[in-house]
Amino acid sequence: MLSLNVTYPAILGNFGRHLVKGRTESRAFLAWFLEQYYRLEETDAQDSVCDGTDDKGVDGVFVDDNFERVDIFQSRLVQNNAKTLGDTQLKEFVGTLAQFRDPSRLQKMVQKTTNHEFRNLMVNGHVADKLAKGYSLRGVFITNATRDANAVAYLAGQPNLLLYDAQELQAKYIPSGPTPLISGSASFDIFGFACAEYSVGQAKVIIAPLRAMDLVKMSGFANGELFAWNVRQSLAGC
């Protein structure tokens, strides 16, 4: 499994073209995350970021029309590698998300902000209209710090809050370019189920029902590395 060093300043080496003169490290962090973990194109990733003055606690916005979901991002790049993430910043972020659930508060927030990037993301993405139509709202907090017990306990009661901390960033990291093939064996319990078996040339094909709880235990499944060599990668894991 390829690893990712999220300690500061080593993590900056991953940001590449996102870390340029005039762009803050925090902004580069989120743009890199969107490209790496959301698989957005470089321009789309950068255009989804609004981290700056008067951003109302919102560092980025992404509207997923396929899943009918609006993701609101907040990123925290920590320079002190001994520092952990508690529940304080998560609670503040949830407070920010509450404004998106109130149409009147959301409208006032968009009208009053001096952050043009944030306003454009909200207006051009028709965020208010889509939330009113039933799009779900999810908060995504990104940091290179590690969650502590308080954060774990708080997240348990926040199903619409997703945390990418040091542990999660490393677990779901797939570097750009080819990845090594996943080796090793996997066992599945198919007792009581019928299976189909046939040959295609020299290849032996077996079709069998597999339990999801067994599939997710496979090496490389969580971060998608298992599917990297699949020629139909965009459909893998669907």
Structural descriptors:
single chain; 238 residues; two-stranded parallel sheet; globular; disordered C terminus
Structure description:
30% of the residues lie in helices and 16% in strands. It is an alpha/beta fold and 238 residues long. It folds into two domains: 10-171, no CATH class; 178-238, no CATH class. A four-stranded mixed beta sheet has the order 1-2-4-6. The longest helix is centred in the first third of the chain and has 13 residues, at 25-37.
Itemize the secondary structure elements and their pairings.
Blueprint: H1 25-37, H2 42-47, E1 60-64, E2 69-76, E3 84-85, H3 88-98, H4 103-112, H5 116-124, H6 127-132, E4 136-143, E5 146-147, H7 149-155, E6 161-164, H8 166-171, E7 196-200, E8 203-207, H9 212-215
Parallel strand pairs: 2-4, 3-5, 4-6
Antiparallel strand pairs: 1-2, 7-8
| Structural domain tally | 2
* Helix share bin: 25-40%
Q: Largest beta sheet: what is the strand line-up?
A: 1-2-4-6
Number of strands: 8
- State the distance separating the first and last CA atoms: 22 Å
**What is the H/E string?**
HHEEEHHHHEEHEHEEH
The residue-averaged pLDDT reads 89
List segments where confidence is low: pLDDT < 50 over at least 5 consecutive residues: 231-238
Tell me which oligomeric state these chains represent: single chain
Instruction: Kindly estimate the percentage of residues that lie in beta strands according to DSSP.
Output: 15-25%
Largest sheet: 4 strands, mixed
Rg value: 21 Å
Number of helices: 9
Q: Could you say which structural class the secondary elements and strand pairing correspond to?
A: alpha/beta
User: Globular, elongated, flat, extended or rod-shaped: what is the shape?
Assistant: globular
